[in-house]
Amino acid sequence: MNYEFEWERILFNQLPLHFLLEVAIRSTVMFLILLVVLKLTGKRGIKQLSVFETVIIISLGSAAGDPMFYEDVGLVPAIGVFLVVLILYRLVTWLTGKSPWFEKLVEGKTECLVENGKFSPNKFERESLSQDEFFTELRLKSIEHLGQVKQAYLETTGDVSVFFYEDEEVKYGLPIRPELFCRKTDTIGQAGIYSCSRCGETREQQAGKHNCPVCDNTHWVLSINTRRIT
Length: 230
What we know:
By secondary structure, the protein is α+β, with helices and mostly antiparallel strands. It is 44% helix and 13% strand.
């Protein structure tokens, strides 16, 4: 058996040495494409990891996997991919530390979605986050209505972190339990405290039709002010 030939096949698979330059170009282009595509998916599409971390995992996983299974993929080009990704990782990390603008571009930024029991519909649209999905995250934290929430943040990892009011500070807020939220109506039948179903604006309303002064929404939900039970 010609071991020299076998080693050449395993390492290069009969590819010319200058193919490594093409590998570097291909790796750089695909790295940037992955970064852009994952950035466009939004935070929730890559929950638990940042965009940059996800790109690294996908890049290295693909580079490591192909040479393991396919004999026509040489080890040296795969190692070249690893080196290119490592260099790009070091470069992006350095730029992230030096430039706040670049850090925001790559990692995104933490958004405050709820402030003093109300939330901003515009931020939901910007983050590609649905109201139902956000409410699910809050319910998983044993939150019954927005009046229990002082601030809620959508982190760069896609997680939702919440800061609560003390029990004695809990106020009336928009119910997020489905059986209560689904009772929203555009015609208030009895005077009371109601919350806008879109932005959480809470106020005392008389019977009749009303537009939300914050977001111009016409649907209201009867507010509750129960304390949080943990």
